[in-house]
Design a protein that fits this description.
Layout (H helix, E strand, L loop, with lengths): L1 E7 L4 H10 L6 E7 L8 E3 L2 E3 L4 E10 L4 H12 L7 E7 L13 H4 L1
Antiparallel strand pairs: 1-5, 1-6, 2-5, 3-4
Helix pairs in contact: 1-2
Length: about 110
């Protein structure tokens, strides 16, 4: 089991979700976050408003997947989020020690689905 964390541009969220759904990856958590990478200080446009500064609006996706879904999840995020410009984001993959579905008590890969 893996936990995939992706930081993407806000305007690419719908594209990434579409690509994930095409790959049958449906269980995602989405958070609005602030941060910057190498592009600090670069002006971005968010909802029609130019923003400059060291903290830029980003979207953080968290997706728990079984090992056989890892590569397709990474490919879907990359395909949906890529613009080819600085600031497209990052994907982090962490080992997931355990997962428990609260409703049923299922654990491990069965809990992820």
């Amino acid at each position: 089991m893996k936990l995939v964390i992706a930081i993407i541009q806000p305007h690419k969220l719908e594209d990434v979700k579409h690509e994930l759904y095409q790959e049958e990856v449906n269980l995602i958590t989405v958070s609005e976050v602030l941060g910057h990478g190498r592009q600090k200080g670069v002006t971005e446009i968010y909802r029609g408003i130019k923003e400059t500064g060291n903290l830029l609006r980003k979207i953080r996706l968290e997706i728990a997947v079984n090992d056989d879904y890892l590569e397709r999840t990474i490919k879907a995020i990359t395909k949906g989020a890529r613009t080819g410009e600085t600031g497209d984001g990052k994907i982090f993959v962490l080992d997931l020690k355990e997962c428990v579905r609260i409703r049923t008590g299922e654990t491990g890969k069965e809990a992820i689905g």
